[in-house]
Amino acid sequence: MKTVYNDRHGQHAARHEFFRGQLVPAFEIPARAYYVLQALQAAELGPILPPEDHGLAPLARVHSAAYLDFLSGAWAEWQGLGGEGDAFPAVWPVRTLRADVLPRSFAARLGLYSMDSGTPLTAGAWPAAYWGAQCSLTALDLVLAGERSAYVLTRPPGHHAGADFFGGYCFVNNAAVAAQAALDRGLKRVAILDVDYHHGNGTQACFYERADVFFASIHGDPLTEYPFFLGHADETGAGAGLGFNANFPLPAGASNEAWFACLDAALARLQAYAPELLIVSLGVDTYGGDPISHFQLDRPEFSLLGQRIRRFGAPTLWLQEGGYATEAIGHNVLAVLRGFES
Ligand code: Q9C
Ligand code: ZN
């Protein structure tokens, strides 16, 4: 399997994030990608390619122009204000406040374009996210040209980012960008299966009222797990998209048997949809040793996941999302991809 590697990800290197009132060492760090790279190279999974630049237009098919403007210039603006360290939002336009008047204040716009304070905006966030999307588009090119599958080794992840906000360590929604690009290249039905521990709220929202992308997600129940405000089982799509969204929330601590029952159910729904392309948002924070998540998958289960996706039979684009047990992430991702290739 070919891998497209985002070699600018290292520019996005937060030192800290907020957790329970304290600044703690960041979880979403460059070492995550280095461990995966090392594992793929040691296993000789296949060639590791750089991204080709497809420009900003495919990102703008998913994200608002105002958001992309803000994100691409945010670090310079923050530096101009004398910002020291990474930028963290601290104020949001919640219910009864107006989000339709663009504030001049940087702090206010940082809040307007974000969903939480747990996502440090670093000096390299924009180049890392931009090139991550380019990797996704390059890997899509490979699959559309006839490769059975391709894997995108990138960070930051993407599935929490919405049309006009960042959050959950995500800035640009790689899965949504790739799905929209596939449709723009002539495909009629694209499926996204999100197996990250956290619900892919950004991806779901992008396609919630559309029938040309089926979004299915297995995740920790938002009643107790991030992103809290989306990902319930009663979210089945709206308008033309009614019936094309399927959420499988599981309680924190759920068994592997319960997880695979959801996987089977999700794949059955996607099979009935008969997509021309399957995009997998591959978070491996479902691992039992993950420091911020509460499922119990391990190498045999990751391998089985890969095998199930293989059996699904569609051309498959794998996109890296979460996974924070840094030293294990390479082995976990490799188990999935090898399971797929076996
Ligand atoms: N201190 C993804 O896996 N909150 N994002 C964590 C831990 C946010 C995870 C709090 C978790 C977001 C792509
Ligand atoms: Zn996650």
Automatic annotation (TrEMBL):
<comment type="similarity">
    <text>Belongs to the histone deacetylase family.</text>
</comment>
<keyword id="KW-0862">Zinc</keyword>
<dbReference type="InterPro" id="IPR023801">
    <property type="entry name" value="His_deacetylse_dom"/>
</dbReference>
<dbReference type="GO" id="GO:0016787">
    <property type="term" value="F:hydrolase activity"/>
</dbReference>
<dbReference type="InterPro" id="IPR023696">
    <property type="entry name" value="Ureohydrolase_dom_sf"/>
</dbReference>
<dbReference type="Pfam" id="PF00850">
    <property type="entry name" value="Hist_deacetyl"/>
</dbReference>
<keyword id="KW-0479">Metal-binding</keyword>
<feature type="domain" description="Histone deacetylase">
    <location>
        <begin position="29"/>
        <end position="338"/>
    </location>
</feature>
<protein>
    <submittedName>
        <fullName>Acetoin utilization deacetylase AcuC-like enzyme</fullName>
    </submittedName>
</protein>
<dbReference type="InterPro" id="IPR037138">
    <property type="entry name" value="His_deacetylse_dom_sf"/>
</dbReference>
<keyword id="KW-0378">Hydrolase</keyword>
<dbReference type="GO" id="GO:0004407">
    <property type="term" value="F:histone deacetylase activity"/>
</dbReference>
<dbReference type="InterPro" id="IPR000286">
    <property type="entry name" value="HDACs"/>
</dbReference>
<dbReference type="GO" id="GO:0046872">
    <property type="term" value="F:metal ion binding"/>
</dbReference>
<dbReference type="GO" id="GO:0040029">
    <property type="term" value="P:epigenetic regulation of gene expression"/>
</dbReference>
